[in-house]
Specification:
Layout (H helix, E strand, L loop, with lengths): L1 H19 L9 H19 L2
Helix pairs in contact: 1-2
């Protein structure tokens, strides 16, 4: 499970960096995607503990 959260965190970081560099992504908000991935990394371990 740790590898999944690590991969999601790396993807979130990439989205934040691309958003900071103002890279145009058609029909995609990179900041929102990065935040969603970051929140998902917090939710996944809590769900797996249930």
């Amino acid at each position: 499970m740790a590898t999944v959260t690590l991969i999601l965190l790396i993807l979130a970081l990439a989205c934040f960096v691309l958003a900071a560099l103002n890279v145009a992504a058609p029909r995609l908000n990179l900041l929102a995607l990065g935040l969603a991935l970051w929140v998902l990394t917090e939710i996944i371990p809590k769900i797996s503990d249930m």
